[in-house]
Each structure stands twice: as structure tokens, then as C-alpha cells.
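[09:14] KT: can someone run the structure on this one? pasting the chain below
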Amino acid sequence: MTDAERRRLADADAGAEPWRMWGPYLSERAWGTVREDYSEHGTAWEYFPHDHARSRAFRWNEDGLAGICDERQTFCFGLGLWNGADPILKERIFGLTGNEGNHGEDAKEYWWYTDSTPTHSWMSWRYHYPQREFPYSELVAVNRQLDRSEPEYELADTGVFADDRYWVVTVDYAKASPTDLCMLVSVTNRGADPASLHVLPTLWFRNTWSWGLPGRDDKPEIVARRGELRGQHRILGRLVLQGDGTPEPLACDNETNAARLWGYEETPDYPKDGIADHVVHGLPTVNPARTGTKAALHYVLTVPPGETAQIRLRLTQIAAPGGKERPVPSLGAEFDQVMAARRAEADQYFGWLVPPGTPPAQAQIVREAVAGLMWGKQFYHYDVARWLDGDPASPAPPEGRRFGRNSAWRHMTSFDVISMPDPWEYPWYAAWDLAFHCVALARVDPHFAKEQILLLLRDWYLHPNGQLPAYEWAFGDVNPPVHAWAALRVFEIDGGRDYAFLARVMHKLLLNFTWWVNRKDTGGNNLFEGGFLGLDNVGPFDRSASLPVPGVLEQSDGTAWMAMYALNLLEISLVLATHDRVWTDIATKFLEHFAYIANAASHQGLWDDEDGFFYDLLRRTDGREVPLKVRSVVGLLPLCATTTLSSVTLVRLPEIAARLRWFLTNRPEFTEVVGARRISDGGQQQRLLAVVGPEQLRRILSRMLDTEEFLSDYGLRTLSRAHLDKPYTIRLGGHDYTVGYEPAESNNGLFGGNSNWRGPIWFPTNYLLIEGIRHYARFFHDDLLVEYPTRSGQKLTLDQIADDLSDRLISLFLPDKDGNRPYLPVHPLLGDHPDWTRHLTFPEFFHGDNGTGLGATHQCGWTALVLDLILTRNRHR
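[09:31] RB: done, C-alpha cells below
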């Protein structure tokens, strides 16, 4: 281990030095979340809107700009900014709620996570802030007038950035120790005239004292002095935030301004918005004694055009609770040394991570994808029982909530740092998103990735019935069962040695697999339901709602996910059985269970032999069977349920070999899903375990690799483009239900309308399909050639096809021959201006034809899988 960052990771993993204790765990958005919703009808977006956030104390977690906090979110640090024109202090990212946006919730600002090491020893963040008045009302009003067929009206469309009149605000962070953080704030005036910017580095304590909870009424304190904020907290000890120069110290309390919000007479003298009202409106709303639970150092920087001004800050824990106080560290030469050293160590770390010969543009994608993943780690606090019952010092929640959202999840208690799908649009974990995050995270921090996988399997997350929690809007929704797959991938990426991790995962996943079998196979025929399964509007109707006619919807994707789940658990149990033969019984169980599911998929109505494709099947109670002939990713996912079993494994585990021989002898009908064999180049016999047999494989691939169906220049679409001219329509219960090809944002409101599985390119399913093709390649080697693209006359091996599909996905972020990145919109500012195209974001999904990034702007979680594709491709070149 030659570089300093990897040594820090090793020390953190061993418990020697808590390098992960402080990090970018402060959310981008805490308002408009389920946790903060105490409304009668679950109207989270309306109950706690953006307008309340500056004045109302959060109950469960905090938010801020460029924010950091400790892993318990005891303290918080973030920036306040004011351009002298806005009606409010800029303390958090603004955006529209799901009911305000014409395509669901949507951040209406521009910021980038430009760097971070796994321990957050070095981080950087960038934000563009208009010098003109921020058009809050205009963004709400214009978007309200748009329908779903129209694109979103963005901040750049308002003209507020015209003539480059904006500030570039960056923050670089460097840790001198786990609890000593140097920060350099830089503000650059991009306008043509001198301009002034108010910058308020702000320190505050999360409010835990206002809710009347026993033992938590201790109120911390921050004392503001010239150039310094000193905080004291019972749990944390003593903190100091230093700033260079002569900023004005301001203090108030992190408590609700009830007078402003609801007209109450009783309100704190210096509430949460006291600093903001003082700076923006000159009101006497800061404590003249300069004490409180929220405080800021107020800088006013006047900067010539094109110039940059900087502020040095240092946040240090100077004493543990009851401990001796240490000297306050320097903002001088030592500060410079720490900043330079951490930046150089970050370069060294990423030089080790990225294979030699990787093109610089691809190396940048890897580094900034890692940054997005690291900044996407958020402190998440949610005690469902406490949320349902209410706090002693607060009004009781409406009676109806006891039987409403998440009322069956009273056991759930979250108090953890978790990798979020998106820090602003989805500031809450999602089970299947998190599994994909962990595969990318394992490339840089396998310890954290394993902790994340185990987290949702802990007793206070996993439901007593075995169900994994989906997300806070509805923990009982059903996400695809990809935890076993992710655990296996993380185990392999980490070197394939942590058998204790696999065993811990396996014990809990046995409960979850049983839940699926008992709850989602209502016919007991090994065909599974599941509902929307994360694919939102992929079908003609909402698969999670009541069906349009009486019956059961047996899902091609649900069945494929369960076949894949059985294979993943088989693979895990085989790994464990090499160390403990107890697991052989589990291995044979999942071998046979996979065979039952795979056989059912092809012989009980999901496979359409005429079309050569898998479809969902509606089994009506009157006995009729209605295939839903939508050619979508639902019919491609069976390709992912495949693996190979080698003769080496069977020799090592003779009990498995004996049971397999018995099974094939006595159950010959399953030979087509577990019986295919070939001899590998190394002389080993390989056995193919697959839902999709060799002949089915050719037929499905002919559609999947067809540019007029699924194959685009930038990956695989989720719906066949054939449905552009021929939408699929079915009449059920007196109503017509239609699915047409929609390559961009959704044109319907299913699941809030903020995502779309009717045509765009999504990274997680593309990634799994590429992996599935590689599994087949491992079996067929170079003997199977497939026309690629379909009708091109060119035939490639399956590995070559997987490589090309990977390259198509990677190319979304690479500059083309004209210097444009395909994922960026065609826009004179966002797509062409070097200030805006220099750094990357990682959108939620991509336009099915032109590759433009769509959905959540900073969704780095599963889109960060691009870094795994790059590292894999360059390792094999």
C-alpha cells in the first residue's frame, strides 16, 4: 500500500483512525421529504415547502450548500450566499416539487461534485450563482403552465446568466486529521463589472432539544467572536470554526420562526432565519450577545471582473467531551501544506485506481463519478414509530397516519450514513438503487460498500416477514431483488476473501427469498408478480395498482429477477461450501429452485415462440390468458438470469455433483435450463444454467441488437423503438391502455412522472444485460457469432458485443469530434460554454435516441456504474 489515501482507508477499516467520521453527509434537501411530513393526507411536498426551510427547524436531518457534518449529524457546516439582489439568503438548492414540475421534482440550479477521495481527506465542490435576482417565482409559474409533452423550463432558460453575470463558487476541503478540516472558498466574478458577494460560512447544531425526548433536552451553544465560532456540545465536545480576515460574527438559534410561518406570538427571539433576515433585510434578528445554536462569519467580497477572491476556513474539534482542550491550529503555512498534500495524495490515489493507458477523458469520468458517489453519502435519520406517534413536545400527528404510509414498518429505525440515489431529487435510500451503488463503491471503498449491503439486512431495517424496505415514500413497495447479486459482485471486487461477509448476507437473504416465494408467487407455479419492480411505467397500466380486470399479472421481469436471485444465492452458497460443507444443502436447494423458475418462464406462458420474446401474462379469473405484448426491457431481463458451473467446482463439491446427476436423471424436463455442457479452452467442462436457452438467445438478441428496436448509439433502450409507429394498445375492463415509445421524459403521471421506462437508456439494466452477455460468452467462448447490429452483415463474438455496448454507454460522457458530450443538452450555455461543460454530472437516465441526460441531474448512484465499465474495459485492453 504505497499511497497515503489507501493507508487512511486501511486505518479507518481497522478502527485505528476514524477518517470517515466527518464527510459530505449533509443533505442537499431535507424539506419536502416524508420524514418531515406530519400532514393529514401525506402531502409531503406541500407540508414542508422550500419557503419554510429557511425558517423551520428540521426534525430528522438538515440540509445546506457544500455541506459537511459528522456521521451522527451533531454539527453541520454549510455556505450561505447573497448576491445583494435576492429576496432570501441562498442556503440550500432550490427546485420544484413533484406537483410543481411538469416532469416531477426537479432541482433548478447548477452545481458539481468535482472531487473526493473515499475518506473525504480531499473534496471539492462547485456552484454557479447568478448576480441578478434569482427567479424563484418565474420558475414555479412557468413550469406550472407546461404539460408533460413539453420540456422543463430551466434556470438557464430564464436568461439570468446572460452576459456571464454569475459567480463561480468553489470549495476545496482537506483533512489535517479526522476531525481537523481545512477549507478554501473561492469566488470568481464571471461578469464584466465589479460585483459584491456576501459569503457566510455557517456552523450549526442539529436541533435535538426541541422535541421533548427524555435525555435529549441538553441545548448546545455556539459563541461567535471576531473571525471565530466556538461550539460546545455534550456529545461532540468543543469545535472551532476559524476564518481569515475580519468577518462579522452573527448568531441565532436553530429553532422555528413560528411567528413568520403561522402567526404565533410565542417564537424564539433569534430564530433559524435570524441571520438571513439580518443580512438581507437589515433586521435586528441576530443575538447581540453573539451566542446561539447557529452562527456564521459574514464576509462581503467585492471582486473585479474575471478575478477571484478567497476565504480560508478551518473547522477543528479541539476537545472531546470532558477532555483537555488542544491549541487552535493555524490558517497559515500549515494550512497551505495540508491543502497541497491532500490534493497531491488524491492525484496519487486515482493514479493507482485507473489502469495505465486509460485515456485522460475516461480517467476524468472515473474520478468525477467517484466524487458524485462520495458526495451522495448522506446522514439519514428516521424512527418510524416515533414519526407515527409524534414527539412529546409537538402536536400529535393526525390519527389517520397510524394506518397510512409506512404504518406496518414501526420496527424501522434509521440513523446512518447511506448512499442516496440523488442528493437533491431522491434524498432517501432506495433498496435496488443502493445495490448498484455498492458495486461502483466497491471499486474505491469495499468496506463501506459491504456495510451498505448489510445495513438493509439488519433487524431494524429488514421487515420481520423478510421484506427489504424499498424507500421512505412506501417501504412496502417491491424493488427488484438484487441484493444477492450486489453482494457477490462486491465480494469479487474486494478480492474474494471475506467469507464472513457473504455468510452474514446469506443468512438474511434466505429470509428475503422466502418472503418472495410466499408473497409474490400467488399461484405456486414459480411465476412471479411483484408490481412495478422499479420499472415505473414500463407497462400499459400501473403494475402496483389493482388490475383493470380480475386476475393475476405474472411478470416476465419478476420471474427473471427471481431466477437470477436463485442463481446468485446458488453462487454464494457454492463459495461458502468450499469452506463449510454445511452450505452444500443450501446450494442444491437453489440449484433446483432455479431450475423450476427457469423452466416455468419458458413453458407457462411468458415465452412467445412466434415473436421470440418474453412478455408479461395476465391470467384472468375467467380462465383467459392475455399476454401483454409490449417489447420492453421486461422481456430482456431473462438474459440476466444466467451463470456457468465448472467441473472444478463439481469435483471440489461432490455432493453437489451427485445431486445434479440425480436431478437430471429423474427430472429430465429441466435439462434445457441446467443441462447444456461444453469444454472450455482450459479443458474444464462448463455447464450453462440459464433461463434463456441457446436458440432463445439468438432470437432475443436479434431484437435487442436491432437499431430499429433496442440498440441505440448510446446503449440499450428500455422499450423497442418499433412502438414509435406501432404503439401497443390493449382493452381491459372497458378502457384502452396504451404503451408507445417515449425516448425522453415521461408523458404520463405514473409514479409522479419524474422517470420513464418507455424508451430511455438506463444504466442499471444495461449493466446487467452486458454482464449477462458476458456469462454466455464464458460458456460459448468464440464459437457463437451474432450479427451485430442486426441486419448489418457483421458478426461478432458475445464478448465483443459486450465490449461495444460498454463503449456506447461510456461515450455518453466523452467529448465527440466537435468537443460536445452527448449527455449534455443542446444549449448555448449548458452544452457549449466551457465553464459549464468542464465538469460532469451523472444523470438518472438518457434519451433513447440522442443520449441527452434526463431525470435527476446528479443521480450518480447507479449511473456511476460507468466507472466500473471504464475500469473493466481498460484493464482488459
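[09:33] KT: thanks! DSSP finds 25 helices and 35 strands in the chain.
[09:34] RB: yep, looked fine to me
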